[in-house]
């Protein structure tokens, strides 16, 4: 991945005016910047400033300059912003869905020490670090906070994994601690993971490792259980200074680290299973990078500086035009943004397993996406934004796709028919057959189609007045039993009595 400078969102000042924190909304529509004067500036996805609001101290008697904002994050629904402050409080502001909506404080959480960093990984759950060393959780539904774990060292950094179900905290004594809300079956350990040689102010949790850096001017990539995978040593480089912040791409396969006048980029190589350093982005007079924020679709990175400037960069591995109608932007090995050039609508096609996405095709009257990885098949409906990733073994690209049904893709390959519902990551079903005709297959939840696989023709169709949620043929294939959503059982025998050939019944059951 390479960084290309696009625009300056906020011009730097002549002296120190630190951008303390930044955040992108989950829906990619809003970008927030908090300046040294404790004002939150709101931008749209195109980089135009659309709104702003001032934060407030925990107690007005100490004045509006009695605190700093140290952490900021959008809620998963993009309608709220959490603000963590050094005057021992977190405010949650309801900003609404439209520009100009009134900003209202809907939650506040008073703490026993200064808030130093903050994340909002899941609905109702805000995770934050404190100066006293604790990592705590604030529940916006109950308006209560609780301690997740405690240490004796100042929390200097806090980050989450790509799914938001695990957190990492970096501490002033170099300790890095890991905690899972849900380890998703990984079996990885919790608790103290590693002792970094210096405070890991730059901390990122990528797909295949944890990247940490700080004032010793060394970048270290740790494995899943804390062993050192790679080290990038710039301690002898007179042009390099301490690393101050880091951010992993939403796909977890790139990490950007900020220092003085420079952004360093590490890209994960799936084939070599190592981090590779891209050409660093050097900008004279940028000064120290104090904050980084990656757009959720992976296409943009913003950098805030010590002098109050905010620079926006384009993030791209490669970009291509498909039939002069679509723009394909590969923002990482496993993530592609598909943009309709006429309507401007975008769909993010991503392998949730981190596999490298191969060629993307747009088929079925230019409505459906098809792409392969080494072990999966990616499908998508551009009209509904329903995406699927199912296990799939490579077959040399010999599959035939049928898009006659709006909800289900029919795939015929090597004598096997597979049905995949858009939006589901499991196949609906598959059957061996040497004959394929989409007009003889029913994917209607109220219709049962019976097909002779040897003769390759439609034997019969049974229409019903309610959703069918279970069906089965007897061993000889002469009788069919099915049940509907009203728990009524029906038997069909007369129509099947004379059938002696091998038959299959196909029905796609959805939302049962």
From TrEMBL:
Compartments where found: Cell projection, Cilium
GO biological process annotation, one example: intraciliary transport
UniProt-listed Gene3D superfamilies: YVTN repeat-like/Quinoprotein amine dehydrogenase
Coiled-coil features, chain-numbered ranges: none
Primary localization: other
Family to which the UniProt record says this protein belongs: Belongs to the IFT172 family.
Descriptive protein name: Intraflagellar transport 172
Gene source species: Catagonus wagneri (Chacoan peccary)
Lineage, top ranks: Eukaryota, Metazoa, Chordata, Craniata, Vertebrata
GN (gene name): IFT172
């Amino acid at each position: 991945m390479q960084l290309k400078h696009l625009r300056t969102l906020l011009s730097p000042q002549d002296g120190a005016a630190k951008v303390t924190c930044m955040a992108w909304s989950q829906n990619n529509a809003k970008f927030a910047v908090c300046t040294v004067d404790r004002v939150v500036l709101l931008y749209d996805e195109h980089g135009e400033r659309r709104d702003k609001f001032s934060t407030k101290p925990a107690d007005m008697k100490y004045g509006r300059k009695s605190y700093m904002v140290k952490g900021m994050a959008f809620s998963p629904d993009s309608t709220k912003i959490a603000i963590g402050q050094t005057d021992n409080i977190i405010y949650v502001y309801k900003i609404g869905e439209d520009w100009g909506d009134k900003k209202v404080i809907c939650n506040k959480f008073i703490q026993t020490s200064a808030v130093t960093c903050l994340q909002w990984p899941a609905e109702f759950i805000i995770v934050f670090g404190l100066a006293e060393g604790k990592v705590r959780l604030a529940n916006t539904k109950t308006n209560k906070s609780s301690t997740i774990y405690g240490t004796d060292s100042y929390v200097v950094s806090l980050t989450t994994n790509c799914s938001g179900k695990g957190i990492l905290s970096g501490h002033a004594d170099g300790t890095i601690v890991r905690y899972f809300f849900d380890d998703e079956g990984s079996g990885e350990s919790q608790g103290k993971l590693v002792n970094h040689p210096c405070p890991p102010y730059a901390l990122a949790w990528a797909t295949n490792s944890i990247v940490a850096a700080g004032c010793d001017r060394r970048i270290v990539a740790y494995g899943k259980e804390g062993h050192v995978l790679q080290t990038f040593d710039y301690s002898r480089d007179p042009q390099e200074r301490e690393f101050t912040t880091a951010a992993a791409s939403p796909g977890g396969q790139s990490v950007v680290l900020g220092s003085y006048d420079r952004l360093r980029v590490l890209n994960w190589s799936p084939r070599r299973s190592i981090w590779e350093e891209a050409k660093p982005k050097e900008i004279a007079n940028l000064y120290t990078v104090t904050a980084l924020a990656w757009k959720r679709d992976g296409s943009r990175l913003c950098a805030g500086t010590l002098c109050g400037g905010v620079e926006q960069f384009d993030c791209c591995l490669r970009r291509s035009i498909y039939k002069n109608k679509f723009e394909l932007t590969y923002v990482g090995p496993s993530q592609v943004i598909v943009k309709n050039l006429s309507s401007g609508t975008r769909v993010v096609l991503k392998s949730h397993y981190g596999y490298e996405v191969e060629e993307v095709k747009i088929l079925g009257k230019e409505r459906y996406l098809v792409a392969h990885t080494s072990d999966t098949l990616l499908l998508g409906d551009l009209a509904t934004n329903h995406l699927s990733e199912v296990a799939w073994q490579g077959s040399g690209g010999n599959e035939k796709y049928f898009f006659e049904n709006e909800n289900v893709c029919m795939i015929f390959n090597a004598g096997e028919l597979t049905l995949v519902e858009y939006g589901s990551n499991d196949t609906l079903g598959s059957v061996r057959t040497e004959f394929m005709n989409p007009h003889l297959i029913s994917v209607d939840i109220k219709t049962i189609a019976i097909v002779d696989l040897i003769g390759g023709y439609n034997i019969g169709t049974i229409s019903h007045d309610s959703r069918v949620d279970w069906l089965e043929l007897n061993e000889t294939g002469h009788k069919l039993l099915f049940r509907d959503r009203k728990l009524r059982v029906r038997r069909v025998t007369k129509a099947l009595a004379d059938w002696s050939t091998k038959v299959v019944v196909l029905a796609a059951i959805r939302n049962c």
